[in-house]
Amino acid sequence: MSAGGGSSPGGNPIGGSESGRPNDVEFRDDISQVIVSASADGIVAVDKEGIIRLCNPAAAELFARSAEELIGTPFGFPIAAGAATEIDLMLPAGGRRVVEMRVTATTLEGEPLYVAALRDVTRSRHVEQELEAALERQNVAVAVAAHELHNPLATISVLVDVLRDRLIALAEERRTEIIERIADRTARLQGLVRKLLTASTIEAKGASARVERVPVLEVLLERLGELDARSQQVHVSCSPHLEALVDRREFSAMVDNYLENAFAYGRPPVEVSATGQPEWILLRVCDRGPGVPEAFVPRLFERFSRAREVDRETEGTGLGLWIVRSFALGNGGDAWYEPREGEGACFCLRLRRPPSPGAPDRT
Amino acid sequence: MTTYSFRLYVAGNSERSHAAEVNLRFLCDAHLSGMYEVEVVDTVARPELAEEGRILATPTVVRLTPPPQRRVIGDLSDHGRAAIALGLPAADASPMEGQ
Questions:
Q1: Pairing between β-strand A52-55 and β-strand B57-58 as defined by DSSP bridges
Q2: How large is the ipTM?
Q3: Which GO terms describe its cellular component (chain A) (predicted)?
Q4: What is the reported pTM?
Q5: Least CB-CB distance to B47: which of A63, A94, A104?
Q6: Of the residues A48, A97, A171, A294, which has the maximum number of CB atoms within 10 A of its CB?
Q7: pLDDT along chain A (363 residues), means of 10
Q8: Arch. (CATH architecture) of B4-85
Q9: Where do the structural domains in chain B lie, given as residue ranges?
């Protein structure tokens, strides 16, 4: 390869000691144009001593140093095994940047010139990792959905077959019981699908957090109303004047998931208490179950996480607590776990409290 | 026989850093019959040494002695070119020959 285009200066065109001569400047300009127009990558050309003789603006950007600073600086002989190799550029502020380096050799006016093309892979690698993580999450989501949806569907299928089978004479009472079980499984499936949809919405858009003043007790009682007979095992403690600054629909989902979690993994009675602090309201949902194994606590609010100790037959996507925390953070609050004194688990939720200096009751 | 002295600048304990050191020692063992010294400088732990050596990228190996000083950028996995670029005995040719 030969890069000897443009006007031809005399003497040694790439000799650093001769920099500053008008013909050198002209020469550099010509070559720079050739190099820059050839590629959008950072280009560094070094002489036989490994000294940088030319670089394009993209290279200056990659090194975070000006072209003036780079030209004349020892870089070294760039050697790429195969098509390309990765190197770390040392940034003046102390950071590093990973670049892919391709090397070509040429002669310029009889002198060897080594050209290193540098491409920033830090960003593309980051994007790649994000994509891999997203794909992994999708795969897990599909696997969890398939597993959690499969069992109730199989049960419904069997029960429907029993109802259809004319050879099986069923008493009316037995038929009613089977229909009830189908309805129950269907409701669970709907709950699971709702949860998966909520999770995918959070993943795609985050919490919507259309914040408004929401009476806490009202929402608690409304959610307990959806809890069927289990609501009798829930004891509520909350001032009727207590309000939270939160998206009402998301607050309902947080309460639902905490209650569901308490019944699935804990034991009744379940105590739900909401108290007011100067700027926050604190909601605690405590059960009398075995509590959470200490080693699992750090991962408790992660997506698809379930403790090993949990009975494999216990239904659950491992999404509920992640949904609570995502919504809590999206509404400017937080969600966390505390062991209950004595025995059991307490799941806590902190939400913002609206400013109401004249409120008669702040507790 | 002349003793060769090299300083290898790497960035942390990465795969790239490890490969560069292994390749440098392999080349030295093959060409210098034990008559060499290799000092490894972690630029993450000792950024001032990188600054002092005007190091722009890692891995960079600098042949300190015998003079003249030579520098090579890369993980040295192309042993042939690396040996020529570092001026190791029985490796006299253009370092970029064939690139």
A1: unpaired
A2: 0.88
A3: plasma membrane
A4: 0.47
A5: A94
A6: A97
A7: 36 36 49 50 90 92 93 92 86 88 84 89 76 75 73 86 78 86 84 79 72 90 81 87 90 91 87 91 92 83 66 62 88 90 89 72 46
A8: 3-Layer(aba) Sandwich (3.40)
A9: 4-85
